[in-house]
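G., the chain you wanted modeled:
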Amino acid sequence: MKIQVMALAALMLAGCGTVQTVMRDDEVAAKILKEQKSYCGAVPRIYSGVTFDFCYLNAPLERGREAEVHTTAPAVVLVDVVLSGVMDTLVLPYTIYKQQADGSIIVSK
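Predicted structure as tokens:
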């Protein structure tokens, strides 16, 4: 049971929107959203993890055999929104500074 919980925590942290936008290069987050074909043009750094998750969901649906489907389960991303909200609140002083210094993360040019 402990292994399953740790594996789930590692999976959630690896895909966490805050990790993607705060702890990695801007190009990584932009590349992920471009690959998802998100309609978002930029992600503000303040609460960037939550915004990243919503931008990840704000993409065209793929055609499946039976119906149009998202490539990632929306329920998983919505759970990540809650975790990202907590993480974004913890790093808020840093992201306010980065927003002032560097501006938003540009997804498409």
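Strands lie at 42-43, 62-63, 68-69, 105-106.

Shout if anything looks off.
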